[in-house]
Structure formats: structure tokens, C-alpha cells
Amino acid sequence: MRDLLADLIDSARARAGYADARFVRSRVQRLSTRNGTLDQLSSSESEGIGVRVRVGGAWGFAAVRGTDRKDAEAALARALAIAEAQPAVPEETPLAPEPAAQGKWASPVARDPFEVPLEDKLAILLAADAGLRTEPGVKLTLARFSAFQTDKIFASTEGALCEQRITECGGGIAAVAVDGDSQIRSYPASHGGHVAQAGYEHFLSLELPGHAPRVASEAMELLSAPACPPGRRTLILAGEQLGLQVHESVGHAVELDRVLGREASYAGTSFVPADGIGSLRFGSDHVSVTADATNPGGLGSFRWDDEGVEGRPVPIVREGMLAGFLSSRETAAEIGLERSGGCMRAEGFERQPIVRMTNVNLEPGDAGSLEDLIADTGDGLLIETNRSWSIDNRRLHFQFEGEAAWEITGGERGRLLRNPSYAGVTPEFWGSCDAVCSAGEWELISLLDCGKGEPGQVMRVSHGTAPARFRDVEVGVA
Amino acid sequence: MNTLELAERAAAHAGTRALALVTHERSLMLRFAASRATQSTGIDDVTVEVAVPLRGNVGRASTNAVDDESLAECAARARLAAQAADAARDGSFPGFDPDYDLAPLESFDAATAELDPARGGAALADAFAEAGAHGVEAHGIWTVAEQDQAWATAQGGAAERRTDAFMKVICIAASGRSGYASQTAVAVGELSATALAERAALKASAGGDPLELPAGSYPVVFEPQAVGWLLDLLGATAFNGLAHVEGRGALVGRLGEPVAAPAINLSDSPTSARTLPRGFDSEATRKAPLPLIQDGIAHGVAHDVRSAALAGASSTGHALAPGGDPGGPLPTNLVLAGGGARDEGELCSKVERGIYVTRLWYANVVRPKETLITAVTRDGTFLIEDGKVTRPLRDLRLTDSVLGILSHTKALARDQKLTSDGEFYGRRFAYGVVCPALRADAVRFTGAAG
Q1: pTM above threshold 0.90
Q2: Would residue B229 count as lying in a domain?
Q3: N or C: which terminus of chain A carries fewer CB neighbours within 10 A?
Q4: Do B295 and B429 lie in a common domain?
């Protein structure tokens, strides 16, 4: 395969100012149970080659399944024809310089999840599912396992030739209680659970069966819990909800393709200006954010991105001030950055790389543990699991709803509230952050379905956060 | 590639009760931003899915390799999955029951299947020129695709060729105001880049400073694109047969009762030439028209084989995966009947002070049982005063029940439009909603956006 890619790149040199080729083999396994029976047991495998060329500033990309040499050469010809058929681009931005990627890398795995017998995985899911069915009002129970393995080889006309294997694994559970109303509780997160760049050991570490009875009980409790009253409250966000808050209002807002208007037709633009580094106040002094493609276990981790840029930590916000962007070689050059942020990722061989998040992390603060933060908060709300999210196309006005909230009264966690929604405006919201818990509370959460691009690409990303507190937030809006 | 022959070979490896579904996608998409070509993607790929039922459970596997060895390995993975499922209780899946006779559909256009990049390049050039003439910049996509799909069991199979074409143009003025227009069709010849760019440009360059409206309830005229979004969300919350049989659906206990204004007539019409027609679903069940709301009365929900078995009903041909998608079945060819209003202008004429919405964006379900959704307006939001569109509005966040909006619907335009968002995640599955513009009273907005 390395020879085939090298030959393709040699052929491309004559007609393209730049070209790269990626071979990708993907394996996915999904198991889930539903109300004690099998919901899904599927495995998918695919492989193919994607060729990207740049001709006079216009990009062409074509993908073909398999590894046949003639098909790959046809994909190259197609990519060139597509690029050449487009209206001329007035001026070609150079790509930010990058050393040619060379070598091999694999994410650490203690136990290959694809080698574990299906029966073992199913036994855990069925045990968890049984634990969820301990409450009579729970009408739907779900337990999920998922594993992903991606092998990539990348070559470019600049001499890059590198290989990577990335393995990801995880799962989760959910219970839906129904009684006129419908309420869901999930563990360890909603929207598919928690997945890490790791092996089967991560799935085992989630201990799904042990958490199932509590999850079912809380789903039932929510049916009769009071609704979150409207008003302005102090809000503590933790876990998945804080990760999603970072994802939607920070991560997407600093994607440089959006900032430069390249995504206006779909994902949208950004309120962040391209010249905002060092001058745009994004949040309070407590807010520092880093995009780090080297976090162990993070779904945004890799050795090289999909245009051969080595992954590294990139400062995004420092003590509230904008410090950087998520970028590609082209977008970085366009605003005069010396180097790409290494954020180009593609979903499989048949999608071209676009600017995506790596692990966009809120750095820990000094507020101690979550219990310390609750104790320090007279009255407020704690939300940690997401149910619904929406944000406008400039990543400015958002509205989220959690699965549940705990009322904080007198510095103690109190009663459960249902339907806890909140809304805000990104820089004002992050400006209201007056505490972030310490490093001991910091952990990576996972988001499994970040959509972007045309044709659409789904990316798995992680966000490191420690619980944080926000003052004077509008709640109970939905 | 002969997809039927490929499906038959895959099925032959999988056993007598198995189903093989083959989808061959050839597609081309050109993106543009600020009146420049930006990205382009050509795809040629196939997905072979094999589903093996065993004791009421279904094991599934897929591959994009087409040689016999790979097909046999894929079938073996599906069988292994089905056997592993023996550890679970017996499921309720009764087995596949394909319809072997399919009526021909108007779903294919040879010119579209050529995937001609020159034709796309010319469309982009037309859009750039028209936008430039209006002093705005064009952003958007032009895309065409051919999808050959076939299924087979040990007893036989069937195949269908479909094409789809989509173009959207978002024009953005120097002021930051934007306008949107899009077109969806089976045939690329129906797309008019110039007309789309003109429509989008006129919205982007509409005069007047944007007014910010406070949160509250307002009469609204929704263009078809926005109505399509609302109905798509209704499909997921109200007409999903699996959610319905599990007690989570919005129509639980409400079938046969009024759920919308009497003028609302909604169906799934998969074989209509006005939609992107499909003759069969992912379980080889023949698709047929399905009434969902008639004269405002909830009439039915969509089923795949699994949800139908749980409900004691028959599949309505809405499976999204062989053996049933975990998310349940969905209607993908919704058609909302038109009303008596001549056009959007006539819908506005009855509004003293209200909001004109071109499209919705980033919609998400908040509480499915209430059909409560939230979304923001985008690319063409205007104030209606004394029966006329008068000035741009700053975008707003809508948070309301879709069935509530349909209950408050006072009038619908006569003409329907095939709307789509042109979102093509995974293996391309082009679909759209056929609907008219409508006017609804008391639509709830919870804040500003954009």
C-alpha cells in the first residue's frame, strides 16, 4: 500500500501543485440491548483510498473503495478533473510549512476490543440492562458497547509517508421512565455513553451493571421531580454538560475555517474575528482552554493529523483572552500563523480532511473538588448530563437542557429537578465563570457525533474539564 | 456495478433467512464560499449489508469489498453475531418478508448520473456572477449523485436506480445580512443556479437595519424550507413506530384525536414523483403511501418489521436498516398538502405584526413526547407589519411544540415545494419534505440568535 500511495503521489506531481493520498481501513463493532433483548449487533468494515489535489488554488478530492491500483489511479484522475473544472481561484494561498511526516504510531491498547468474544460483551450489557429494569415505571432500557479501529497511511507530494492505528472503545446505559411525561437518565453520559482511545479495558472500567439500578431510580425520580423554575441562578456545570459547553461555544467558535467564512454554507461562521488573538476577551481570568492532540485516551488524539501535521498542544484561550485557533495548513497561512494547529481530520477514506477539534480542554483551576465547589456555592444548580443542545450559526447564543439538575441550597446538593434548561451568550457566559475545580477533578468526556462538512462527516472528540461555576445564568428557558 | 447480482451473491453466502442489501453511491459535491470554489468531493463506494435473523434477533455485518471471499467473510460475521445473540432473550423480530414485485418509479435521470464536474463548475460560475451583480458573495454547494440499491434473499431480489441533485446558495452582504435559497430534484437539469443566487441575494440585500424583537409569541409565516425542518422533527418525535410502541412517542394515546388544525393533511408518499421516490425500504418492504394526519386528526405511525411486530401491526416500509435501526423507523417522504393561499405574500397579508422565517437551523428535540423543539432562524428573517414584509429582523430562537405550531396554523399556501437540507452523512440517503409555506399564530420565541 505504501508503494501504491507513493506512485499515486508521483503521478500527481506533474499536474498538481500539491497532492496527498490516504489509505484508510475502518472497523466498527456495535452491540446494544434494549429492554433485555438484543437491539443491535453489527460489525462493519471498509477500506479505500482518498486522493486530494490542489490545482491553481482549487481543491479536488476523489475517493474509491478498495486497494486496486487501477481504481486508485482513476480516483486521482477524477480528483484532478474536478479541481480543473471549477471556476479559477484568483490567488493561491501557500500552505503553512510543515516537516514531512515519517514513521508509524499506534494508540495504546491493553486488550484489543475486536478480539474479545461477542458473548462476553453481551453478557455485560445484559447484566446492565437487567439492572435498569428494576423499576416498574422504566419503559425503555438501553445498554451499549462500541469499538472502532482505524488504520491509516498518508503520503504527500512534500515527502510525507506515515502510518497510524487508532483504537477506541466504550459504552453506556440509559433508562427512560414514562408516565404521561417521559424522562431519561444515562450513565456515564448520554448520546452513546463514554468512549476513549483505549482497548476493552476502558469498557470494563465503566462498570455499567453496578450503576444501572441508580440510573433507573433517578429516571423514575425525575417523573415526579419539580420542573426547573425560570430565573437567573448560579450554575455549576460538570462532566458531559461542561464538555459539550466547551465543544459548542469554544471549540467550534475557534475553528479557523468558520472564522474565515469557509463554512458559512453549512456549519456557519463565528463571532470570533480572525485578528482576535491577544485582543478578544473570551471569558474570565479563570478560563484557559487548550487544544491538545496528545492527551492519552482522548478521541482527538493522534500522532499526525490527516494532512501530516504532528499533533501538539495549542493554546486557545489564556486567562480569558483568545490565544489561538484550530487550523489547517491553508487557513493558518491565510492569517499569517507560522504553523498549522494540526486539526485536519477526515471521517474515513471517502471524506476529505477538514478543520476539526482535537481534544479541546478547559484547564483545571484551583477550586478544589466538586464537593468543595458546591459547598462554596450558596444557592444554585448542578447539571452534568446533557439532553438537548442548540447554538446559533455564529456560536454566540446557545440553549441547552440537561437530563437532570440538583438544586444547591446552603452549600449542599439538594433535590432533583427535571427539565433543567439554560441559555446564554458565549463571551458573557464564559465571562461569568468565577471558579474551576482543581486538577484532581479533571477528566476527559467524549462526544461521539460531532457533525460538520459537506458531505457530512461525523467525528468523535474528547474534552477535558473540571467542574466550573457560572454566575447569573438564565435557567428554565424551555 | 450490477448491484442486484452483488446482493444475490452476498445473500447466497448468508443462508435461507438472510437479507442482503447493497447500496452503490456515486456522487459529486462542489462547495463554495465567498464566491470561490473551496472543496470538492467525488465518491465511488458500495456498502454490502448482510442481516441474519435467528430466534427473533438479527445479526448484521457490512463490507465495501465485493469479491466472493469478502462477501463470505461478511456473511460469516453476521451469522456469528446472530449466534452470539442467543445469550439474550428471544427477540421479537419475525423475519424478513420482502415484496418481490416493484413498480417502476420516476427516480432516475441519466444526465444527473453523469456526475459532470464541468456542469457543476458552470453552476458555480453562474451563482458567483449573479451574486456579484447584487453586490453580495455566494456560499453553498452544488451536488449530484446516483444511488443504485438492490436487495436479495435466497428467493430472489430487486433493484432500483435513483438520482438526486441539490443546490443551495447563501448570499452574504457586506452588512453581514444573509439570504438563502435551495432546490432539490431527481434531475440536475431542474437546478437553476442563477435563480437561486438571485433569490438569496435579494434577501441578503434587503434594506433597513435589523430590528431585535424581544422574546415572546408572534404570528409567523414560515417558508417551505422552515416548514420542512419542523415536519422532519415531527417525523422523529411523533411518527417513529418504535418510540410509539415503547410509550415514548408524542402520539401515544392520541391516535384518532385532533392534534393539529383541520387544514393539516400530512402523509408519507414515497412513490410520488414530487418527492425523491423510493420503492422499498432497508428491509425490502415495499413502500406505499401512509396517512399520518388527516384533517388534523392523528392517523398513524411508521413501522419497520421490528416495531410492527411489537405493535401487532405490519411494517409500513420505513426501516432505515435491515433488522431495524436502533433509532427506529422514520417517514422520509413527508408530504404536507397545500392550502388556499396564493403565496407567502398572501399569508403575510393577514398579519398585523409578526415574523417571516426563511429557514431554521440547529434544531434539536428538547422533549420528544411534547414535540418540543428548539432552533434558530437564519438567512432571511423579517418583520411583517400591516400585512407586508417591511424590514430585516435579527435572528431569533424558536422553542415550541411542533404539534402546537400545526395546531395554531391558520393558512397554508397552495403550492408545495420539495425541500431538503442536503445533509449527506454516511452513505448518501437523499430525502426531502414536500410542503407549502404556512402561517401560524402564537409561535414561541425564547430569545435572540446570531
Answers
A1: yes
A2: yes
A3: N
A4: yes
